[in-house]
Amino acid sequence: MTALVSAALFASISLNLIIQFGLGIEEMPENDAVRPLPFFQAGVLFITVFALWALFFYVVTPFSSILFKYFLLFPFSMLSCWTLELAASRFIPKIVPQKKLFNAATAYNGLAFTALMLTLHIASTIVEAFVVSFNFSLGVLFSIFLLDEIQKRSSFEIIPVFLRGKPLRLISMGFLSIIFSSTAAILLIALSAK
Question: I want to staple 48 with a disulfide (CB 3.0 to 4.6 A). Which of 80, 102, 120, 153 is the partner?
Fold first, then answer.
């Protein structure tokens, strides 16, 4: 049970890699426009990471070397994101948003690749893989929500002109990265001490 709780905490709080790889400043909305949270793409991320974990953990790893496995992670995660989005837009078009935050051709700006790589290192059972991949998806939604709230609050606060927009978003991502990685390290040390 402790391993499951620590895996969930690590996945949901350690957003250092997710913020650095997946939430670049190019994803900033134009003119401080409010954008909806990408629930559909978070669901695709969860399904991709969980399904590819099972594929790599049970099928690919026993029959290949470790180095070969890492070369396959990005193409498989990209194809999985793209296939799931295409299938959803064809069979369930009402739930697919018109404007997407992430690009499936880049495996959601590396989010799927990073989450899959970390899930392969953290999870050793199906339950742990489910919890970790679900919490990565929640962590993505949470970090996007936080960054959007910081951006929205900046329009009400006194901020120098040269810091508005993309510089403020980049600084916010850096601070969130430090906060989340430090919190995850403290929680993992506390959990391992028990």
Answer: 80
